[in-house]
Write a structure and sequence with these properties.
Strand order of the largest sheet: 1-2
Order of helices and strands: HEEHHHHH
Shape: globular
Number of helices: 6
Strand content: 5-15%
């Protein structure tokens, strides 16, 4: 919302996670005709910093509610055939046959504190040398 609607970085602005071969990742996709890659990168960094600030201001009760909702989502049985197929396909191919992945993540999430999350966020999204790959494609319409 901040990057797309408030800052009007571009029409296509999204983020998602991926999990391939036991490698977790997060990606940002921003298609803009008004901002260059450097401006977009700076805006994403500012957004990530504001995310850490918001996390650090959460009350413990709020954090526990969010954590409980994430765990409940992880443990919820898939009822739609497409969702069930995706989970089985992911377990078979992306996770090398680990069909208990969601349960394992839920068990580990139960152990996390707000302080743990803030440290993980800082270390993985805001470190001096983040593990990141930036791909910028510039083009002009014909």
């Amino acid at each position: 919302n901040s990057l797309r609607t408030v800052q009007k970085m571009g029409y296509v602005v999204s983020t998602s996670k991926y999990n391939t071969r036991n490698r977790l990742g997060l990606y940002f996709l921003i298609q803009s005709s008004t901002h260059n890659p450097v401006e977009i990168e700076q805006a994403v960094l500012a957004w990530k910093k504001s995310g850490l600030e918001a996390l650090s201001k959460l009350k413990k009760e709020e954090f526990e509610e969010y954590k409980a909702a994430v765990i409940a989502d992880l443990l919820q049985e898939k009822k739609e055939i497409a969702s069930l197929f995706h989970e089985l396909d992911s377990g078979a191919y992306d996770l090398d046959g680990n069909f208990r992945y969601r349960q394992q993540v839920a068990e580990e999430a139960q152990k996390l504190s707000l302080e743990d999350i803030c440290k993980l966020y800082q270390a993985n999204l805001l470190s001096e040398k983040p593990s990141a790959l930036d791909v910028s494609v510039l083009s002009k319409p014909n």
